[in-house]
Design a protein that fits this description.
By secondary structure, this protein is mostly beta strands. The protein has a single domain, classed as Immunoglobulin-like, CATH 2.60.40. It has no helices and ten strands. Strands 5, 6, 7, 9 and 10 form a five-stranded antiparallel beta sheet that branches. Strands 2-3-8 form a three-stranded antiparallel beta sheet, with no helix packed on it. A hairpin with a 6-residue loop joins strand 9 and strand 10.
Length: 115
């Protein structure tokens, strides 16, 4: 299912552990551990497949498209990555949704957090 106009990835992904934090000043921190493909019954299961980086996009109150995206961060072969970046927030950001996207800011979402 698309979230804020962003389509999901073509395969299912599983996440061992993840955290997101967004402060009122726009500091966005996202950590993922063990973000890997699952359920394909192929050799892709348990890997990151062609995804070598993640980008985090933020939307407020379901806005379409997302209002801001981070720079890419490398995704390890084990599915671990960390982003800690300042982003520009609108004056009011209700019900923020954080989308972890595959490779680029135009990629599909592969993990999400928020309302």
């Amino acid at each position: 299912m698309a979230i804020s106009g962003v389509p999901p990835g073509a395969v299912a992904w599983a996440l061992s552990r993840g955290t997101t934090a967004l402060d009122a000043n726009g500091r966005l921190t996202v950590e993922v551990e063990g973000l890997v493909i699952t359920g394909t019954n192929t050799n892709l299961d348990g890997t990151t497949g062609p995804v070598k980086a993640i980008v985090v996009s933020l939307t407020c109150d379901g806005m379409t498209p997302p209002i801001v995206s981070t720079d890419p961060a490398p995704l390890s072969p084990e599915g671990d990555a960390r982003i800690d970046q300042q982003v520009a927030l609108p004056p009011v950001c209700l019900a923020p949704i954080v989308l972890v996207r595959a490779n680029t800011s135009s990629g599909p979402w592969i993990a999400a957090s928020g309302s």
